[in-house]
Amino acid sequence: WGGIVDVTPDRSPIIGKTPVPGLFVNCGWGTGGFKATPGSGNIFAHTVAKGEPHPIAAPFTLDRFRTGRLIDEAAAAAVAH
User: Fold this and answer.
1) In 21-51, which positions are buried (b, 16+ CB within 10 angstroms) versus exposed (e)?
2) Is the N or C terminus of the chain more exposed, i.e. has fewer CB atoms within 10 Å?
3) What is the pLDDT of residues 2-56, one digit of tens each?
4) Which phi and psi (to 5°) does residue 29 adopt?
5) For residue range 70-79, what is the model confidence (pLDDT) as tens digits?
6) Could you tell me which of 72, 64, 62 has the C-alpha nearest to residue 19?
7) 11 burial level (CB within 10 Å; 0-12, 13-18, 19+)
């Protein structure tokens, strides 16, 4: 395999609305997304349907990069990105 891995600066996914009206993202999972995205689908569906983050997904919004509230869970990853 050769290619890129989509990871964010804090190595945690982005789940939620974007500044573009009607555009939501569920990305940045890196290599863990293959296993994690099925479980996040229910949470993402809630976010899209309600227009606000599910309580579990609230820390994973895009806004965390603007506010500086990054997620420190680097040790939770099974691989180093």
Assistant:
1) eeeebbebbbebbeeeeeebeebbebbeeee
2) N
3) 777 778 888 888 999 999 999 999 988 877 667 777 888 889 999 999 999 999 9
4) -75, -15
5) 887 655 555 5
6) 62
7) buried
